[in-house]
């Protein structure tokens, strides 16, 4: 593919992985063992382009942490300015300003809440669940089949994907799994909307059998099940879940580590349904590429449980990360990036829906904003997952300078989730590449 400087489109110079990359990958395998990830090395990034160590350029189309793309001068400069002050933690403007900005973006009740700083998404969930249990004095947590909440301890127990957990022999005590509304593959074999939301009504059965309400602290949900196959619940579902939590004195924990901020075409994905969480987990994107993560709770939840501790870990609330986080949110607002996510997202969905009419492999196209799933199937009627085709397409896309990945129970859903700064021209290029690769 020829380099196109003007449009910053991908450009592959050597066969992949290139010679320098090969050396680094060998070293990587020596230290970390074999890797299932594509053979990408990291040299530099700008906009939605990632450049490997052999100077091959890739268009990033499945990405969550650098939501504004790479090397945004305003974000880089804000980080450097704070770094030059040499102080990385403490009571200082970046921490307080970031806290104020984030709270100002939340639904009314949460905007009066408490912010608890940690470093990673995994820790937000760990902390949120501990807070919910301590506050309600109940042990059980409801979590979803196919969910992904982190890599350690409690978060590992919560993640409802046995393939991720199998090697860890994770304990499953005190967690009760319930089916996510994955309508294209309904766990109850129903058709939306004839189903009358059986998945929601099924909770009554759960409460009478394995999770008595008086023993259940809360329910944790990803408002869009990203790793589980990019499913957004039907409109009435979120409100239904919230009502069930309220009725039973349970807390609603919303894990927006992946979906926040702006990625779904709203600041929070939960904003699509006008539902206020009792606890909200944010990570990945909020630190503008630096480690920054928070749990925001209704005031009484934190105040009655933590004895005034709001920072968990030495680097929690790091001031460089806070400075980058402020610049990130300002950049998103100044450039109307959430609107861009919404607009480009609709364009992608429409393009793939049109494409699905002439492609035997595309079974479903779904999502919100720039969190889009294209589900590949062997047969549109039986919906037999086309997992192998999916991994071949991911590999071929990489060889064409496009980075996407497959998610879902059968790893047959292409996740299309570029940064919010993606341009129409880059989007068209990505669609053109995938159009060539999908049968
Ligand atoms: N929750 C969700 C929904 C996630 O997608 C992830 C990471 N993929 C995590 C939690 C864990 O976040 P981290 O990798 O920052 O620990």
* Total beta strand runs: 15
Largest pleated sheet: 7 strands, mixed
Counting copies of identical and different chains, the oligomeric state is single chain
CATH class of the largest domain, please?
Alpha Beta
Question: Pairing-aware structural class of the strands and helices?
Answer: alpha/beta
Kindly summarize this structure in a few lines.
The chain has 439 residues and is α/β, with parallel strands linked by helices. The chain contains 14 helices and 15 strands. Helix 9 (235-247) links the parallel strand 7 (216-221) and strand 8 (251-255).
Give your account of this protein's structure.
The protein is of the alpha/beta class and 439 residues long. It has 2 domains: 144 residues, Aspartate Aminotransferase, domain 1; 262 residues, Type I PLP-dependent aspartate aminotransferase-like (Major domain) (Aspartate Aminotransferase, domain 2), CATH 3.40.640.10. The protein contains 14 helices and 15 strands. A 7-stranded mixed sheet has the order 4-10-9-8-7-5-6. It has a 4-stranded mixed sheet with strand order 1-2-3-13. Strand 14 and strand 15 form a beta hairpin. Helix 2 runs antiparallel to helix 11, helix 3 crosses helix 11 and helix 12 runs parallel beside helix 14. The longest helix has 20 residues. The two termini are 21 Å apart. 4'-deoxy-4'-aminopyridoxal-5'-phosphate (PMP) binds next to helix 5.
């Amino acid at each position: 593919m020829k380099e196109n400087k003007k449009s910053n489109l991908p450009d592959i110079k050597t066969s992949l992985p290139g010679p320098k990359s090969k050396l680094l990958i060998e070293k990587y395998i020596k230290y970390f063992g074999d890797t299932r990830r594509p053979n990408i090395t990291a040299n530099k990034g700008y906009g939605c382009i990632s450049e490997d160590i052999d100077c091959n350029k890739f268009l990033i189309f499945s990405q969550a942490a650098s939501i504004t793309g790479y090397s945004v001068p305003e974000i880089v400069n804000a980080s450097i300015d704070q770094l030059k002050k040499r102080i990385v933690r403490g009571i200082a403007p970046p921490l307080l300003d970031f806290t104020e900005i984030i709270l100002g973006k939340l639904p009314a009740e949460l905007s009066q809440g408490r912010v608890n700083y940690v470093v990673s998404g995994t820790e937000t969930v760990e902390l949120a669940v501990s807070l919910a249990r301590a506050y309600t004095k109940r042990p059980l947590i409801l979590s979803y089949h196919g969910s992904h909440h982190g890599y350690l301890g409690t978060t590992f127990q919560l993640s409802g994907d046995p393939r991720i957990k199998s090697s860890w022999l994770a304990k499953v005590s005190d967690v009760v799994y319930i089916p996510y509304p994955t309508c294209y593959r309904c766990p109850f074999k129903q058709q939306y909307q004839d189903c009358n939301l059986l998945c929601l009504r099924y909770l009554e059965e759960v409460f009478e059998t394995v999770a008595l309400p008086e023993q259940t602290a809360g329910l944790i949900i990803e408002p869009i099940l990203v790793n589980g196959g990019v499913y957004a619940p039907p409109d009435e579902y979120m409100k239904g879940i919230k009502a069930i939590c309220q009725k039973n004195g349970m807390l609603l924990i919303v894990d927006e580590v992946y979906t926040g901020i702006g990625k779904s075409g709203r600041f929070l994905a939960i904003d699509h349904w006008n539902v206020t969480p009792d606890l909200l987990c944010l990570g990945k994107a909020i630190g503008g590429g630096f480690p920054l993560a928070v749990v925001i709770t209704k005031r009484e939840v934190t105040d009655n449980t933590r004895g005034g501790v709001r920072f968990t870990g030495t680097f929690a609330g790091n001031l460089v990360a806070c400075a980058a986080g402020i610049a990130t949110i300002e950049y998103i607002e100044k450039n109307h990036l959430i609107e861009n996510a919404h607009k480009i997202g609709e364009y992608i969905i429409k393009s793939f829906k049109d494409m699905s009419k002439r492609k035997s492999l595309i079974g479903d196209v779904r999502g919100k904003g720039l969190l889009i799933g294209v589900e590949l199937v062997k047969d549109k009627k039986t919906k037999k997952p086309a997992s192998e085709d999916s991994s071949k397409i991911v590999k071929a896309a990489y060889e064409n300078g496009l980075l996407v990945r497959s998610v879902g129970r059968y790893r047959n859903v292409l996740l299309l989730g570029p940064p919010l700064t993606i341009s129409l021209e880059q989007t068209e290029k990505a669609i053109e590449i995938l159009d060539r690769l999908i049968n």
